[in-house]
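Dear colleague,

Following up on Tuesday's group meeting, I ran the structure prediction for the two-component complex that the binding team flagged. I've pasted the input sequences exactly as they went in, so you can double-check that nothing got truncated or mislabelled along the way. The structure tokens for the whole assembly follow below. Feel free to forward this to whoever is handling the docking comparison.

Inputs:
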Amino acid sequence: MNPWMLYLVWPLIKFLIAFVIVQVIVAAMNWIERRVLGLIQARLGPNRVGPWGLLQIVADPIKFLLKEDIVPSSAEKIAYFLGPMLPLVPAFIVFCLIPFGPPPTFAVTHTNVGLLLILALTSTGVYGIILGGWASNNKYSLMGGLRSAAQMVSYEVPFGLSIVGVLMLCGSLDLVHIINYQAHHVWNVFPQLIAAFIFFVSMNAENNRTPFDLPEAESELVAGYHTEYSAMKFAFFMLAEYSAMLVNCCLMVSLFLGGWTLAIGGYGLTTATLKSMGFMGGLLGTVIFVVKVMTFMMIYIWFRATFPRFRFDQLMDLGWKWMIPLALINIFVTGIVVLAAPEMIINGSVVPVGETILAVAGAATVALTLFLIMKPRAHAPKVIHASRVSEA
Amino acid sequence: MSTLTKFSAIPYTGPAPTNRNPYIPSDVAVHDARGAALAEKLQHAAMQQETGQDLPTFIVEKSAIVNVLTVLRDHPELRFTMPLDCWGVDYPRREKRFDVLYQLYSLQNNERVRLKVMVGEDESIDSGINVFKGLDWFEREVWDMFGIRFDGHPNLRRILTHEAFQGHPLRKDYDPAQRWLLTEKDVAQLTPVIDDRFKDVDTDFERVTLNLGPSHPATHGTLRIVVTLDGETIIGADQEIGYLHRCFEKMSETHTYQQVIPFTDRLNYCSAIINNVGYCLTVEKLLGIEAPARAQHVRLMLSEFMRIADHLVCIGTNLVDMGALTNFWYLFQPREEIYGLIEACCGARLLPSYLRIGGLAVDVPTDFLQNAQRLVDMIPKYIDDVEKLVDRNKVFLDRVVGVAPISPEDAIAYGFTGPCLRACGVPFDVRKSNPYIGYETYDFDVPIAEGGDTYARYLVRMEEMRQSLRILQQAIDRGLPEGPVMVDNPYVALPPKEKVYNEMESLIYHFKLIMHGIQPPVGEAYFQVEGGNGELGFHVVSDGTKNPYRVRVRPPCFAIYQAFGKMITGQTIPDAVAALGSLNIIAGELDH
């Protein structure tokens, strides 16, 4: 094939298709989130525009586009304009690097350091939030921006560390390789349970979602860093947030849940099986991928409906005192197991001893951690009944 | 029982109000005797007993007021430790035109005492702030409303009106139609600089002054808290109130007694009927009448429903402030249903104005008890659901345990009442200490908690809802008493329309009531009920005309909110927000 076609036009077309699909999903997420929240919270959610309120997906962007774009007179203009755009660009570029289905057809590009690039790009999202918070020249925005910076920097560490275990097991930074490895062994969520748990918590924190939504804590900081933003600029922030959520869910699925495959130990819908089914097989893989991703998006929503918000110091405690040590221990144990207990061959079949050890140890550690974090207080205050209090 | 039969066939033979009779409380002998006993015990030269009042009352010489307050507080047998209220009344024709009234409460003996100090127009009075911290805002209010200076008050600024206001609105010679606008220029000049007072506080970082409110998502109502921050830690805070001041007390003086009822709705709009009950009971006390048993029973039931609604709103919004959204809708569902019940009674929901002096506006619908039973059966599920979701939630507990605590001593000295006081472990509940409309016949507990923090306040409110449900179940089991819902007294209650059209007597009564209103005897009466937030007291002074001479409301929020700045100092902004929600500050009540 013509190299121009191969390296420029074809990826561009695929990117545009992926971009449109992702944007539709992001817009639809807004509707889904509101409907599901409504379901959980014993109310209806948007149900007026179109059937089941589905046209809300269209109505919202129209509203954002038509609203007046207010710029505070005391804002730092250039930074104020840059604020919403900075997080948007990396959020979109990242979708070039995520394989939605078996490559090459269903991934825009395929590089062997895809994971590293994704991590590098997503971590730039915080600049826009800090810039926007600072440029608004509003104390609430500034505090939101600062909180966001501290939070993202803190949780970037366990976020990155939790991936190391996976890399050690799979031995590659290539997402396609990681997914194929899982299809031929077992989903990483089992041997790397701790890592998956930390990754999941950190990705909530990275996206400023409840219970980590301190940067935009409505009741404390009005709306945090985007208090002064209106119309399309505000929509940009929202778009970036939902895109980042989607990216993180894609990573979660790719790293820990086998991506587009549905196989264990090489049996089931592995990449090779899907490829043998031709284009439809690839499509099937993509559908599997999207279903897994949407499951995690639903968990995001479920979290939002369930948890109160952390206080800032408690958030930092959780990050530095629990998540990071746990991630380090995970790396340490994984390293020992990978070195000392390679796969044994008993009676001619491959038994993943190391992974079994990791899975059991991981389950025990997560259970212990959850118990330590969630255990009821020893001296919880109680309500005392005083029936004849007036005489007291 | 239809309301049409509320007037008996027998012509009214009771006394006609000759509107110059002095008011004699029904239990005057008890209070006079208690007053005499107090006077004998104290033997204070500056205290002179005033007899014929509805509370043990003393007229205190102005120069000795601080001494008297101290003696009453520290006397080992009396221990009047709680400053319930301080307010003023203006009598312009008198030589010393102002009365400054204090009401103190003794938890030890469960009794109240009222002190009166006469103050002339250009005179000032010593501030009692060093005796009772809680007198702070009450004295500022008296200064704002009457222009009486309090010597030694550290921060005697206007509180309910704005700084560009001229004159003192509750003086009788202040024209009620006179308005003062606050322009942007005035604001710029008069915005208080808060930073100065905290400039000596040792901090690590640069200080920032932040305005929380008056329109901030966490200030339910228009409150303003000016906090000085060191990072996210609050090193000093001051509360500005008055953004929702609607001159309730001044307006009452230009309306008839019945016309005041809609104003009371707007005090604590989350539990409007309790305000109605408090005001109506005060005026009924002044009139020496009692509403029929059926009306009292309905009043009690609706009071308890409103208490539940109030707590539901408080807990729901408090949890929203902490980011737990779902609970809000779960708690608002039963609240809606409660409003449905009230709507069935009188057609209005949030601000029903359902009560009248002497009874109820109309009888309850026939299925009232069934609906009430349905609610009583339904509400526990919602409370349990929320409890399951948050009670053992680590994130929630971390946010509330130990946040914005207040010690019982401080709470009492600030004049805390209601759930916020009970959360400190002080078992004071007006329904138990001064039972009214039959609360003494019901079996219920007063929940208290230890710690006085946000969690304790949450626990107390949750349990209080269950106790209210207990009361309601008993009330439903007893059934509604038969009979009218309005007193059979033509000087208080309007005759039914068909009688007005057919009988001369009724026409005259109707005309007199419409034109001349209810005319209580000359005097003053204080009555208190347990509102959603604590003791809701009304002090009504009558000069025998159709308009109240003075209506004083003792809003429980007012006393509670003045301690807020101290409670959140040293905490962070999220703590302040959580604490504010748990205090249940209702701006309508706070700002009168």
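Residues 1-10 of chain B have pLDDT under 50 and may be disordered.

Cheers,
M.
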